[in-house]
Amino acid sequence: MSSIGIRLQEVKARLASACIAAGRGVDSVTLLAVSKTQGPDAVREAAAAGQRAFGENYVQEALDKMAALRDLPLQWHLIGPLQSNKTRVVAEAFDWVHSVDRLKIAQRLADQRPAHLPPLQLCLQVNVSGEHSKSGVAPAEVPALAAAVAALPASRVHLRGLMAIPAPADTVAVQRLPHRALRELATALAEQGLHLDTLSMGMSDDLEAAVLEGSTMVRVGTAIFGRREA
Ligand SMILES: *Cc1c(COP(=O)(O)O)cnc(C)c1O
């Protein structure tokens, strides 16, 4: 097996252990392989080892990779910031966007999603760590934004959940806090009648904490593909 294939198995084993420790089913968390800065060959290796869902941060880089890998049945998730001048190509090429943080972006994606494709799956990126990150909607603004995005045409976009990139922390106990905050936001939405099925949280260094707090999709780059070049 390739080194990427071996690391992929290691991450899956970590994920399974985390699910067991959390008292959850081992299939309750989807693994998104974050392939930003990796070339098409690395993605091909991961795909050969059974990986289907890939996360990308940079739109043009992702489009180039999709073109090079058109022969493979892959699912593409945009997890990086999205500017409004890029929404059309994103609506045409991606399956998911995790980084919606304002209504205008979601409206443009809904307007521009081609009718022959399934609805684009959306998550709202929430700034759960305050000053650490400038991207993401403030927690207090999530209920209004979620209601507005959920009201967009269902044939074009489908609001699936919430996403966060918490500040790094050294212990699982501290790592759990922002993940818990994201889960509690989703619980509050459910109490208002908006039921979302996705919590996109957990990366190479904190996936165990995220799974303990209810993550349904972890986004893992370094632990699968190795350190990225600066
Ligand atoms: C890069 C990135 C990841 C993966 O981070 P690793 O620490 O390499 O696992 C996950 N989510 C987002 C939004 C990222 O930008």
From TrEMBL:
Keyword Nuclease: no
Domain (Alanine racemase N-terminal): residue spans on this chain: 25-227
Cofactor entry: pyridoxal 5'-phosphate
Domain of life: Bacteria
InterPro entries: Ala_racemase_N, PLP-binding_barrel, PyrdxlP_homeostasis
Keyword entries, A-Z: Pyridoxal phosphate
GO molecular function: pyridoxal phosphate binding
Signal sequence residues: none
Chain positions with N6-(pyridoxal phosphate)lysine modification: 36
Name of one Pfam family that matches: Ala_racemase_N
Function per UniProt: Pyridoxal 5'-phosphate (PLP)-binding protein, which is involved in PLP homeostasis.
Cited NCBIfam families: YggS family pyridoxal phosphate-dependent enzyme
Family to which the UniProt record says this protein belongs: Belongs to the pyridoxal phosphate-binding protein YggS/PROSC family.
HAMAP family: PLP_homeostasis (MF_02087)
The name this protein goes by in its record: Pyridoxal phosphate homeostasis protein
Provenance organism: Rubrivivax albus
